[in-house]
Design goal:
Length: about 425
């Protein structure tokens, strides 16, 4: 089997602590990597994520990043159409450096593809709450949903487009990747404690959408302009939200509907037929996300038409967050799927990984590159990494991606090379 790419992400603190050359050399020599990218805007999250301590960082045991800071300089003129401006790191060992440039320069010396990632969040949520609360998504009661920015807010849209444009315009990269949070899904509704929760019942997952967002005034304005009866949609969904949150001691008028729905085997199609406003709400969110990705793609291509726009899927059911791969396939150049079953011991024998890869392929078609991720992290084993790669070799993927170097052991990095050799995978750029 031939693939085009084996990618590895690197964080600015990896590069600062271990050295750019060391990090790149390690992933190339141990895992046959031919593509490196910087997580240039990273959300607030303890690193390493899935273990207590770093496995090979010589300077620190762990790291707590600032929320959504930029690790390379940007041109303020590109942000003139939005009050949101880039926020940079204040950490002494990281500030004042263009980490994307440093990684790219050395990557080019080694004849590698280079890229950048805009992660889940692109602006500090605490700053937004204090200074720009209007940009955050709202739940059905008008409350702020933290860490979720509304793409129907024009200021958010302009800021996002400027981030991509500036990054591509001012750096020698081949691709720019994002796993930006879309619309908040909400927690799935489960059966009451005294009833068995059927994992095959997806109505609860669908119903959880009403506990998410967004129900802000910007969504109302955009939906109304598109011909939706937003007030009726919200009124109907408020009834569903009461039912979704009903318990033995809360929302008693709705509790029996909740129990019967979650105990039965009604299909999602049946539930949507009963609740057309929920379908219209999902459709509107899909149109919103599709329009956003179209505009971001245009912004990227205006900066450099050769740069690949890659979406990094992190959701099991992205359609509930507004992402329909059939609708967006013309606005994406490639997709990376972030299934990391290996770090959990692959309890489903990689079923979710296979299902997600095939779902994405069905949506984007055969001409767009599909990059499959796996986790060489301490909770995985060399055997699991090799088995994952073997399975991926049967699914028609165009590349592999390590998630992530900062938590990987060298034993697991070596298993990547071994797994590719055992599966008969050859890299052809």
């Amino acid at each position: 089997m031939y693939i085009k790419e084996v990618a590895a992400s690197l964080y600015p603190w990896d590069l600062a602590d271990e050295g750019v050359e060391t990090c790149v050399d390690n992933v190339v020599e141990h895992s046959l990597v031919n593509s490196v990218y910087l997580v240039g805007i990273m959300h607030k999250e303890k690193r390493p994520l899935t273990s207590l301590f770093f496995t090979h960082n010589p300077k620190r045991k762990f790291y707590l990043p600032e929320d959504s800071r930029v690790y390379y300089p940007m041109d303020e003129n590109n942000f003139k159409n939005t009050p949101l401006k880039p926020l940079y790191t204040t950490r002494d060992f990281l500030k004042g450096r263009d980490w994307l440039e440093e990684l790219t320069v050395y990557g080019r010396k080694r004849n590698l593809k280079t890229g950048a990632e805009i992660s889940h969040s692109f602006f500090d949520c605490e700053v937004a709450k204090k200074e720009f609360p209007d940009v955050l998504q709202k739940n059905i009661h008008g409350g702020i949903i933290e860490n979720y920015f509304c793409c129907n807010n024009d200021d958010v849209r302009e800021y996002m487009k400027a981030i991509y444009y500036d990054t591509v315009k001012n750096h020698d990269i081949d691709f720019i990747q994002t796993c930006m949070r879309l619309f908040a899904i909400g927690e799935p509704v489960k059966a009451p404690w005294f009833m068995e929760n059927d994992p095959h019942n997806k109505v609860g997952t669908l119903l959880g959408v009403v506990k998410g967002g967004c129900f802000c005034n910007h969504c109302r304005e955009k939906a109304t302009n598109q011909g939706y009866d937003w007030d009726k949609i919200v009124s109907d969904l408020k009834e569903l939200e009461l039912m979704a949150n009903a318990t033995a001691s809360k929302n008693l008028d709705y509790v029996m509907d909740n129990h019967l729905l979650m105990g039965g085997d009604l299909l999602e199609a049946g539930f949507l037929l009963e609740n057309p406003s929920l379908h219209l709400f999902l459709e509107f969110r899909m149109k919103s996300v599709t329009g956003l990705l179209k505009e971001i793609n245009e912004s990227i291509k205006a900066a450099n038409s050769k740069v690949d726009f890659r979406y990094n899927n992190y959701l099991r059911y992205p359609e509930l967050a507004g992402l329909d791969y059939v609708a967006v396939k013309d606005y994406l150049d490639s997709v990376r799927d972030s299934d990391y079953s290996e770090q959990l011991g692959a309890p489903d024998h990689f079923k979710r990984k296979k299902n997600t890869i095939l779902k994405i392929r069905r949506g984007i078609g055969y001409d767009k590159d599909l990059i499959a991720a796996f986790a060489p992290r301490p909770n995985a084993t060399p055997e699991l990494v090799r088995e994952s790669i073997r399975i991926l070799s049967t699914l028609g993927v165009d590349g592999l991606s390590l998630g992530h170097y900062d938590g990987a052991t060298f034993e697991l990095l070596d298993a990547v090379k071994q797994g590719m050799q055992e599966a008969g995978i050859e890299i052809r750029r």
